[in-house]
Amino acid sequence: MFHSVLKSVTTFSATILLLSACATAPNNPNANSDIRNAQAKSEAQAESYDENEVVAAISTHLGVTSESAASAIERLFKDRGRPTAYITGEEGGGALTIGVRYGKGTLWMKDGRTEEVYWQGPTIGFDVGAEAGKVFTLVYGLEDPVNVYRRFPGVDGSAYLVAGMAINYQAANGITLAPVRTGVGLRLGANVGYTSYTKKRSILPF
C-alpha cells in the first residue's frame, strides 16, 4: 500500500515538473516572422550596391579619385541608402535660358540584369556651361529594369556641388534617380526641367 502511494506521488510530481518545464519555455509565435524578416533584409541588401562598390564604379567611370567619389556619395547614402541599380553613360547639352539634354548609357542592376537606356529632356533656368561629359546615375527603388523607361521630373532645390561633381535628384512613381555629373560644364542653378528615359533614341526632347 505504501509503495503504491509513493509511486503515485512520484508520478504526479514528475508530471508537474514536466508541465512546469513546458510553461517556462514557450514557443515564440513571432520566431518564424523574425527569421523571415531577417532573411528579407539580407536579400534586400544582397540586391543593392554597397558604398564601396559605388565608390569604385564612380571612380572608374568618371575618372575621379576614390576620395572624391566617396565624398560625392556620402550624402547620397545618408539620404537614400543603398541603390538597387546605377546607370553609366555620356550626355551632351547646353542652356542659357532654355536648353536640352541628350544621353545614352547602360542600366546595371545588382542582380546582373542590364538595359540600354537613352534619355532626353528640356531644361529651363540658368545653367552653367555647354555641358558635355560622363554621368553616373544612382537608382533607388527600382525592382524591374523596364520601369526606368518613364519621365522623371527634377526635384526642386535638390542640386548641390561636392568634390567637383554636380548631383541632383529626379523622382517618379517611387523611383528616385541621382545623377552625378562631371565634365566641361555643371548644370546647377534654377533647373526645373525633366528627363525622359527611353529604350530608343528620340530626337525630340519633349
Description:
- By secondary structure, this protein is an alpha+beta fold.
- It has four helices and ten strands; from the N terminus they run ααααββββββββββ.
- Strands 1, 2, 3, 4, 5, 6, 7, 8, 9 and 10 form a ten-stranded antiparallel beta sheet that branches.
- It starts with a helix and ends in an 8-residue tail after the last strand.
Topology (elements, then pairings):
Blueprint lengths: L1 H23 L6 H16 L4 H12 L3 H15 L4 E10 L3 E12 L4 E11 L7 E9 L10 E3 L6 E3 L2 E3 L2 E3 L2 E7 L12 E5 L8
Antiparallel strand pairs: 1-2, 1-4, 2-3, 3-10, 4-9, 5-10, 6-7, 7-9, 8-9
**What is the number of beta strands?**
10
* Count of DSSP H/I helices: 4
Extract low-pLDDT stretches: 1-31, 33-44
Structural class by sheet pairing and helices:
alpha+beta
Keywords:
206 residues; disordered N terminus; alpha+beta; 4 helices
Condensed summary:
The chain is 32% helix and 32% strand. With 206 residues, the chain is of the alpha+beta class. Strands 1, 2, 3, 4, 5, 6, 7, 8, 9 and 10 form a 10-stranded antiparallel sheet that branches.
